[in-house]
Amino acid sequence: MAPAPARRAVLRAAALVAAAPALASLTVGRATATPATTTPAAGAPAAWTLRPFGPEDVALRKSVFTAKRRLMLDFGRGYDVDRLLQVFRANAGLSTRGAVAPGGWEGLDGEAGGNLRGHFTGHFLTMLSQAYTGTGEKAYADKIGHMVGALDEVREALRRDPAVLSVPGRFGTAAENVRGSYQFVDLPDTVLGGATAVTLAARVKPSHHTAWARILDFGDDTTRYLYLAARNAQGNPRFALTTSGAGGEQSLDGTAPLPLDEWSHVAVTIADGTGILYVNGAAVAKNTAMTLTPAALGTLRDHWLGRSHYAADPVFAGAFDEVGIWSRALTAAQIAELRDHPAAETSAGAGNLAAYTFEETTGGTFADSSGRDQHATLRRTWGGPSHPGFLAAYPETQFITLESMTSGDYTVVWAPYYTAHKILRGLLDAHLGTGDARALDLAMGMCDWMYSRLSKLPASTLQRMWSIFSSGEFGGIVEAICDLYALSGKAQHLALARLFDLDKLIDACAAGNDILEGLHANQHIPIFTGLVRLYDETKETRYLTAAKNFWDMVVPTRMYGIGGTSDREFWGARGAIAKTLGDTTAETCCAYNMLKLSRMLFFHEQDPKYMDYYERALYNQVLGSKQDKADAEKPLVTYFIGLVPGQVRDYTPKAGTTCCEGTGMESATKYQDSVYFQKADGSALYVNLYSPSTLTWAEKGITVTQSTGYPSEQGSTLTVRGRTAAFDLRLRVPGWATSGFRVTVNGKAVKGTWTPGSYASVSRTWRDGDTVRVLIPFRLRVEKALDEPGVQALFHGPVNLVARDARTSFLKVGLYRNAALSGDLLPTLTPVPGKPLHHTLEGVEFAPFSEGTEEPAHAYFHRSEPTVVFGGTDSGIANPARDDGTTLLDAIWAAAPFRNKGALIKHVRSTVDAWVAAGLLGAADGRGVVDAAKQADYVS
User: Fold this and answer.
1) What is the pLDDT of residues 200-230, one digit of tens each?
2) Whole-prediction pTM value?
3) Is 304 in contact with 218 (CB distance < 8 Å)?
4) What is the full DSSP assignment across 688-738?
5) Residues 6+ apart with CB under 8 A from 681
């Protein structure tokens, strides 16, 4: 049962401020751990000078945010989470309850064989937790409880030896081998008994069409063996034996596939140099030149049902009903009897070498009824976990293999610690959101297991691992481990977090050396959020300095106008913007992680640049990455956001369940998390985003309600209700707000001149009903690509306006034609009636990037101002340019705003004189430019 909303807040606060016991110094390599610095008074790390409000404290009001969130809430509420749990249950050999994995990255048939499976489940848990704490809706808590309970069962199953999964058979019961379980049946090495003639028979129900899955495989290695495969390369059954590897196989191949999810009887007889393959009682292949017999192979080491000696071959997926081995070749008539009857009821009788009927319903041993005591055992191909805390949707082998890798190959190992992070984060959020102790226990176990592995490795091995592209990626695991440490106080958890230090990256960034070119962006961004949390817990300034310097290496030098970063997932050189525009720019995960880092840095240092960036990325890339459409199966979130002309966004990328869809689910359920912050001592309230919402500030006994249509409305109204309370109200003055920023309290203007990119502070004792009005005039402006100033993006206030046009070449756009004396370019555009923030220019519609449509769009255009134009008056004179690309009109309008027309004309004259003197403009043309400026009419 889920706790009530009020109790949820208590649970969450208690978890966040859990007192950590004093810890003795703990040496980890060159670093020394110190006690956890989370304090009950702050409810957050003591190093934070600001602290956030809980998601339950900030209620969103009707807006673009609630519309997008509703789509994700509906998706989360309706999705069958057993589909996500399928891969976990399969890995543990448990029943998957008929669920079908989502596919894409969450299934064995997805990219790289599903080597990242399990990550989406972690994202989903976080999304559900945020949905629950943000809405209080019990349905989300119920899903969390179901998922946590299932994961607890999975871990318990992995701790034990595998047990039979009993299912109905053709006769009686059968043993199912779930695809993805990596389980097989191990027979004794005496099972063949030195037979020179043999019959091998099995009744099976294959559940998957993969080639080379073995019904049985007896051998030593890939040199000496015999096998019966359910499907060869052509999809048909095959029997083969050899003493000299694949090239020496003597074989029998069927002529048709075994049907999936149906019982089939397959048998092989070998005697007197002849082998015959039977399927469902009928002979389908015969080889009269089989000189090898089982006896010729000698004593073999392994005798397996469902497993191949070729490591790349899949484990058999399906069910075994009966397997028999005879020391003679049964007749065709006897084989036909076996098709329709249990062996013991036929003239052949049960196999005299071995006979398994799989009647067991518990345990992992299968009885042999031949009388020879050849009892079999169910095993895992990978043995079992190295530690009882292990939890994953695949074997521990990915983690083991990574330790010896020297270069990345995601088809072999795909970021196992990244996936572990998603699961760990999801469990922590489940615990913080609902108080589920099982989730915390699972998270603690995972960290204990990781410490048991990583603490044994040399420092050089760890540095090599974390430097490997893709395979060594570990996401935001350090942040999550530090958050767990704040709850557990266990020294080894902090020590574990420090084992992920990638020293060459940390040291370079701490020293201000930009080494980002060529690095995978999303592999590295979350590292720095973890470093900030390490600083919180250790006070080692190297960590915080590295994170702050890193942020400045991305913003703005590697940032696109929408706030995104990366080109084909990697970083280019500093300032490379226009040259990197393509259809695989701005991976959505990067924006998500940059927002997390910006938020975390702002908790330490209230530099407005962090919240300016937050607004940019949130109102543009993050909102625009979510399609404005309902879907029961997919979250509909972009992976890449291509910024080439005419690009259409893909909201169902890479067959689904990608990293960006995972972070997209999270983003759409936490839009409220950075609207308001408070000073750690409660002396100030920061309003970072102008978003319609209601804050409940329990400690002050007040609510603050924002009423606004922002960004369609150029301002916001804040109303304080409740007790009398003294505090500073700090209102963000956006960096783009160059046309003024005005504040009134109860209708009276607050005196002050506030610089764009700062916070306006209103200090007073607030009383019930006090009303604050914030006015933020917008301007239409351009942002130039750092490497090619003629390539530009268009903004109205915080909103990136994209041109909706199917052409795939850059549009040529002129904006000075009707520029206002204020410098605002908006009069050049024509507003679209009934569509806020939509405008047209020369027949092309410009619309907010945040709208999640599938219309082709241009986020960048080529600026084209061929002639000098003022107030709609075209002088006919060419608009000259300097070597750096700055045009005469650029130089004139750079001085805006102008007090009046006379001030503009005066500046036009002085600019023209300078350009004429520099030989950039002829004297006659200069006079023509001044005359045009005089003749024009201007919008003020």
Assistant:
1) 999 999 999 999 999 999 999 999 999 999 9
2) 0.94
3) yes
4) -S--SEEEEETTTTEEEEEE--TTSSSEEEEEEEES-EEEEEEEEE-TT-T
5) none
